[in-house]
Amino acid sequence: MIETMPKCWNQKTKPHFFCPGCGHAIILKQLGFVIDDLKLEQEVKFFIDIGCSLLAWNFYNFDTVQTHHGRTTPTAVGYKMAKPKKVVIGYMGDGGGYAIGLQSVLHAAFRNDPVTIILVNNENYAMTGGQMAPTTMPNEITTTTPTGKEVKFGPGMHGPELIRNIASDKAYIARTSMSAPEAVKIAIKKAIKTQIENNAFSFLEILSICPTNWKTDAEGSFERLKMAESYYHIGEIPPQKSSQK
Amino acid sequence: MIHETTIILFAGEGGQGVQTIAEVTAALAIGKGYNATYIPYFGVEQRGASSIAYVIISKGTIYYPRFDDADIIVVMRERALKDIKRFITPNTDVIFDSSTIEAKDIHKIATKTIGFPGSKYALTKFGAKSYNLLVLGVIGNYLGFDKTELWENVFEKLKSKFKSKEIEEKNKLALEFGAKIVLEKGEYSKAEFKADLGDKLYRNKEREGIIKPSLCKGCLICVEKCPVGALSKGSEVGFFGANIPDLNIEKCITCGICKRFCPDGAVAVEKR
């Protein structure tokens, strides 16, 4: 029998709750493959946020904690303090990570807490109907910016670059895109290894698609993702040379 | 036939056009001088679970758009049966798609049942996309609406979606055909268009592939990403009522990109 899913996916809860073609499920699949590869199923504790990401509450065979708006990072950090040997992964959307939960993420990076944060950026608030988010790019159409995001609302938010400014040099901070799942897998692996081996903070933003709110088909979704890839820098964000940390 | 107050529940699969049917029905009733409300059912369950719409048509004032007991229930897919159970009373007329739902299943939960072989006609004569208009024809006829009036309302609502004259004509024919379908009472068509949800296996000497219609949501990302065009949009529908892909195992190069991308874990290929 050919396996179509990672081993750590909870098969009883499939089909899952995500929309058809959702980027979340594709990213969660890569995370599943990484956990299978590293044989971490018994060690991983998974923390999810409010928003579309919460639909992953029963996605895996390992324990999942679901917490308040934007408070995923402190909850994960607290768990890690109590059980330092466990591998703690926080999983959130751009609304939870950059809008309501930014200060939590920033302070975790500032303290260099050894947790892995995976942030999925689909450039809108998808669960509530695709409103403008901090990460919406200029001129991008959402339900609250029907003629395109205006200049007065600011540019799209560059989260990893912001976090790099205050994070430790040991921390792994990067951005990848879902259009290359193999690269996502490599980046997730590196982020988890940073937590285990270097005992340092790791933050990974993954650009994703949202066919339901973008109102695109498979082809259109990936075309729009290409626009995001050219606007946001893809790759690891290295520590600044002048930093004193 | 519309009485003093008629309470209608529409239930089916997401993507079947349940909400469109309900909205047009309410708009028609308003056009005829009734008061009418339409409200969709939202929730997490909506993502890949059954789609439900509440409609109330009344001569008097309507105070609240939701209800516990329905006068008429229109059910279009077997999976929606568990969701409509609580709305059924001994006087409820349950109108069901007899070509996808078995009569014995519906008799377990309802006494007054009326069938129409909707999927059979839609799939053999017009294509899956015209199914909602065919059902609307059936319901419009049942409620006693005139079919030209019905078409005018539908056209007003959906004209932006009709991209060519051809599609418009096809949908109009489906609606008119639906209005002519004789409703089945007592004897029903066979449920021969029930979606087949068994795993589809493909095999040749070098490689084998699997597609799981029970998981596929029909996003067609695998078709878009396949580098050699071995996957294509198929004609069969899966658990979610969407077209599932078809695999040409001879063209396949076992690169595994489909498995990497598939958000639902519904497709995989392997070397033997």
UniProtKB/TrEMBL annotation, chain B:
Name of a matching Pfam family: POR
GO molecular function ontology, one term from the record: metal ion binding
Residues annotated as domain 4Fe-4S ferredoxin-type: 207-236, 243-272
Keywords for this protein: Iron, Iron-sulfur, Metal-binding, Oxidoreductase
InterPro entries for the chain: 2-oxoglutarate_synth_KorC (IPR052554), 4Fe4S_Fe-S-bd (IPR017896), 4Fe4S_Fe_S_CS (IPR017900), Pyrv/ketoisovalerate_OxRed_cat (IPR019752), Pyrv_flavodox_OxRed_cen (IPR002869)
PROSITE patterns: 4FE4S_FER_1, 4FE4S_FER_2
Entry-linked Gene3D superfamilies: 3.30.70.20, Pyruvate-ferredoxin oxidoreductase, PFOR, domain III (3.40.920.10)
Annotated protein name in UniProt: 4Fe-4S ferredoxin-type domain-containing protein
Biological classification of the source: Bacteria, Candidatus Berkelbacteria
